[in-house]
Amino acid sequence: MTPIEGLVVKAAGPSMKIKLISGRTLTVPRVKDLSFGDKVWVCINYTNMTVKDIMTDYEYHELDKEKEIDLSPELDPESGFIKGKVLGDSVFLSD
Fold first, then answer.
1. So where are the chain's domains?
2. DSSP assignment, residue 32?
3. Contact of 38 with 6, CB cutoff 8 Å
4. How far is residue 83 from each of residues 9, 50, 58, measured CA to CA in Å?
5. Which one of 16, 28, 32, 62 counts the least CB within 10 Å of its CB?
6. DSSP bridge pairs for 19
7. Is 21 helix (H, G, I), strand (E, B) or coil?
8. DSSP one-letter string for 53-75
9. Would you write out the chain's pLDDT as a tens digit for each of its 95 residues?
10. How far, in Å, CA of 91 to CA of 60, rounded?
11. Model confidence, pTM
């Protein structure tokens, strides 16, 4: 799921309005301490057409940071086979 960029255009009371870059305006419950002009990223569940999550710009960019992953193979001592590392839908083996 790709979050959609938007700006908070109204944040008063129990709800807030977010204007997406596509031009559409969403009215959602106020779940975070956001104010007028804050950049947000909206995750939409397209099956139910509901807002799944609202992330601040900081939270969104924290997801982009690279995490160091050890891709070196491990040898299973009992079977003698090399174990691969499974990341998502891919399996990585070394030479």
1. 4-64
2. S
3. no
4. 51, 41, 36
5. 62
6. 7, 25
7. coil
8. EEEEHHHHHHHHS--------EE
9. 678 899 999 988 899 999 999 899 999 888 888 889 999 999 888 888 888 888 888 888 776 666 555 556 666 677 766 665 555 555 555 44
10. 27
11. 0.61
